[in-house]
From TrEMBL:
The lineage of its organism: Bacteria, Pseudomonadati, Pseudomonadota, Alphaproteobacteria, Hyphomicrobiales. Keywords: Oxidoreductase. Transmembrane segments: none annotated. GO terms for molecular function: oxidoreductase activity. The keyword Heme does not apply. Belongs to the short-chain dehydrogenases/reductases (SDR) family. This is SDR family oxidoreductase.
Amino acid sequence: MSSEQKVAIITGASQGIGAALVKAYRDRDYRVVAVARSIGPSQDPGVVAVAGDVADRETADRVIAEAVRRFGRIDSLVNNAGIFIAKPFTDYTEADYAAVLGVNLTGFFRITQRAIAEMEKRGGGHVVQITTSLVDHANSAVPSVLASLTKGGLSAATRSLAIEYARRGIRVNAVSPGIIKSPMHPVETHAALGALHPVGHMGEMSDIVDAVMYLEQAPFVTGEILHVDGGQSAGH
């Protein structure tokens, strides 16, 4: 494989949107470092699987080291790993708080800081966060303060990083999904969850993948929060 092939790091890569993103980047001839708590070795020589919790400093160090050691560069980072716990605000526990902040914010901070440091060496790169439309459009049927606290922080950080690094060739964007059909949503819940969207149905994982791929190929776009949410952020 040529050292000129681009390299993407994708967190939360073992299933669902993360696994679909790994395939999409490989289909575009990227080499990929796939990160998740439980992920087995890949049979694809263009994919390095790193098992670990993104909230742990050691995992972030290992991910960046593996990308550089195996592939020699880092071009893109997709911060897809996330935890969503829907509870009334007063029912959240300290364990809930620690888990959500650990993955959604601490994990983002550690791996993004290290990835951008490598991107600076090459004079360019792209970082994408996966957030949630609940940040912009709270819904009384879906109590989600911890999601808003953390994913809202990612949206703000996306804009801040985009401006900080705009003249250094590093773009930073986010995709803000509605509710997407994935293994975390049993089929019997799809009708009710679909009704939460103005378009009347849930999104597909391909909708999110296509949004990330658009941003990947859009050199004049940075600081963008791209809503892929069936109209939720516009209202009801």
